[in-house]
Amino acid sequence: MALDRWVAFVILCAALAYGYAAFFTMDALLPPFMQRNPIWPSTFPKVLAVLTIATSLIILLGLEKSVASDKEPDIDYRRLGDYHLGKALTLLGLMVAYALLLRPAGFLFATFAFLCCGSFTLGERKFHILLPVAAVASFIVWYLVDEVLGIFLRPWPFFI
Amino acid sequence: MIEGLLIGLGAAFSIQNLLMVIAGCLIGTFIGMLPGLGPMSIIAIMIPVAITIGDPSAAIILLAGVYYGAIFGGSTSSILLNAPGVAGTVASSFDGYPMARKGQAGKALTIAAIASFAGGSIGALLLMIFAPMLSTVALLFHSAEYFALMVVGLSAIAAFAGTGNVAKAVLMTLLGLVMATVGEGALFNMPRFTMGLMDLQSGFSFITLAMAMFALPEALFLVLNPARSAQGNGGKIDNLRITREEGRKIAPVIGRQSIQGFFIGVLPGAGATIASFLGYAVERNIASKEEQEEFGKGAIKGLAAPETANNAACTGSFVPLLTLGIPGSGTTAILLGALIALNVTPGPRLMIDEPQIFWAVIISMYIGNLVLLILNLPLIPYIAKVLAIPRNYLIPFILFFTLMGSYIGQNNATELLILVGMGICATVLKFADYPLAPLLIGFILGGMLEDNFSRSMQLYDGIGFIFERPMTLGLLVIAVLLVVVPSYRARRAKARQEGVAEGD
Fold first, then answer.
1. A43: contact with B, CB 8 A cutoff
2. Is the CB of B413 less than 8 angstroms away from the CB of A51?
3. HSE of A37 in the Cβ direction (CA atoms, 13 Å)?
4. Close Cβ partners of B131 (under 8 Å, ≥ 6 residues apart)
């Protein structure tokens, strides 16, 4: 089964759960006076659930015949192994680490580390350029956001 | 209209707003030039900055400047590198890149700049004429018509997604609408679909979603497949002049394409990409025999046509945004989200309630086009150096800016995890060839769609409003036809194809 149909299947499952919530569990919480309204909080979600389930079924069952396109796809998931998958995943991991470290480690350190590790992952080895660039960029962004735009960012780790 | 123009001139010519236009155009050009980063990502990254400015006119002027700059920068990279950063400038590379190969890069850039300038300015003039007319009509609309109009807009976007992709685009739109129902709505004081999570109480953040849908997958694709981003060497660009004869040759092309491009841009879902391809095709068909031979080998007409058309279409796409409050493209959807965040509701009342915003935007379009022509064009040889920034530095910085953008919007580190999660989902969707812009448009329109739907339901005490208001019914019929007809035609085309061609 092609990837787009797998995706449709996943969306179908999500839509079923969403529809179950809309049809069976949401209205239980509704106060009686609101039940006399022509529209309930669950009305619109019910409509959406039905339409989403129908559309994802159309894709899943291949009812819409697609005209074979001769344009070369931008990137082909079937050749995923040929691409730099490891690098992409490492970068995503770094982003998660950044999200978790931002508060405890402080903005300056977390950003500096993220930029350095990110460039390193992509193959940068000239540390005499990389380290100053990352340090200066972290400081400039912190200065712009905290001092100029006035949004608080804790610069240093929690123990300082 | 004169009165409005004066208000706009007064607002746009403040020092702050002039700086906004110039800064926006420069930033847009810089980032738009980087292959793989479209105007949507750039605007998404710029939104937190624009929102913290606080003044809605200044913010939208900045974002509009970024938009123009990004389109201009996109054409620069497609001319110099044959690597369009934006789908709307793909057609510019057909003739622009051959010109650059022949050593006429400077001339090609000048033609692109002049064509963009003319397209944008004529577009702004048409916008000035048509937007007030349309908003007068739109004032007669009730919530029932608004509901129907939004449905038409959403289905038009799906319908323009291309043959064989209509169901996917519809599904993405629906997914966007579904995501918009998460959180506490304005009409009902109860949280919906939050699964008990406090972080979802106010729903998904639109900035996070915009970053996750556009900037993040584009950056990841650059990592996955480095061949996709052609690396420039910052080659020499000189001789920016064009001759008088060449000017005379492209003048009628520019005139025709500004008007055609503008009206294509007004249609929801069509936008700059379709306008530029159509403009190229039309000009090629009506050119004389020997000129037709030239197309694709560096014809100046073939460069002027798409460039004019895409800029005129960008301006045209502001018409539904400013008059109806309904975005027709991903980019204007992001602008709409930014406006709502600034407490401005675009729609027919905008011209009456806050004329200074409306007219300042229009005046700043002229200024923006002028800035691109007189400031950016001479600077292009230097700006083009940005193409030589190594990817090793570029990509971590793009990722960092997406993180920063969604963090400073919410000041919440959980938001960053949501960003990464949705970014992964968006990348998978992109792999599976699902269009992402409809999802974002659905998400942004979702709240308004439901509000208008609920209001009509309450007014008419049930679903009856569809049948009692002929215009609502008519619009809904159009919406259904828009979705059904292309897929029906695709089936027929497929059947015909199977009859003649060999199977695969």
1. yes
2. no
3. 19
4. B318, B319, B322, B323, B351, B358, B362
Q: Which helix (H) or strand (E) holds B199?
A: none
Q: Please, what is the average pLDDT of chain B?
A: 79
Q: Span B458-466, mean pLDDT?
A: 81
Condensed to tens digits (0 to 9), the pLDDT of residues B226-239 reads 665 554 444 556 66
Taking CA atoms, what residue in B is nearest to A124? Answer: B392
Q: What is the ipTM of this complex?
A: 0.86
pLDDT value, residue B237: 63
Tokens representing residue A60 in the block: 């899943």
Q: In the predicted model, is pLDDT for residue B160 greater than 80?
A: no
Most confident of B71-75, B96-100, B303-307, B484-488: B303-307
pLDDT digits (tens, 9 = 90+) for B23-55: 888 888 887 777 666 777 788 778 878 887 778
In the block, which residue shows the tokens 């700086």? Answer: B19
Distance from CA of A145 to the nearest CA of B (A): 8
Report how far residue B233's alpha carbon sits from residue A130's, in angstroms, rounded to the nearest whole number.
20
Q: Dihedral (C-alpha) A82, A87, A90, A92: value to the nearest 10 degrees?
A: -80
Strand boundaries in B235-289, DSSP class E: none
CA dist., res. B178 & res. B97, Å (int) = 43
Does an H or E element contain B192, and which? strand B191-192
Q: Match 């520019």 to its residue by tokens.
A: B254
Of A75-89, B341-355, B466-480, highest mean pLDDT: B466-480
Question: Do the Cβ atoms of A52 and B223 come within 8 Å?
Answer: no
- State how far the alpha carbon of B356 is from the alpha carbons of B11, B23, B57, B361, in Å: 6, 21, 8, 8
Q: Which residue, B114, B99, B28, B109, is CA-closest to B76?
A: B109
Kindly state whether A28 is in contact with chain B, defined as any CB-CB distance less than 8 angstroms: no
> How far is A20 from chain B, CA to nearest CA, in Å?
11
Q: At what angle do helices B2-12 and B355-371 cross, to 10 degrees?
A: 60
Longest dimension (CA), chain B: 69
Q: Using alpha carbons only, how large is chain B's radius of gyration in Å?
A: 22
A53 confidence band (pLDDT: 50, 70, 90): very high
Does A31 reach chain B within 8 Å, measured CB to CB?
no
Q: How far is CA A10 from the centre of its chain?
A: 16
Phi, psi for B13 (deg, rounded to 5): -90, 20
**Inter-chain contact A45–B395, Cβ cutoff 8 Å?**
no
The counts of H helices and E strands in chain A are 5, 0
In chain B, where are the structural domains located?
2-498
Count CA atoms closer than 13 A to B349's CA, side-chain side: 5
List CB contacts (< 8 A) between A48 and chain B: 174, 177-178, 181
Q: Specify the pLDDT at position A70.
A: 44
**What stretch of H or E contains B191?**
strand B191-192
Q: How far is CA A36 from CA A40, B5, B187, B376, B458, in A?
A: 9, 50, 15, 61, 11
pLDDT score for B234: 46
Q: What is the average pLDDT across B125-139? A: 83
Measure B72 CA to nearest chain A CA, in Å: 22
Q: Choose the closest CB to A67 out of B185, B226, B490.
A: B490
Which residue has 């306008």 as its token pair?
B275
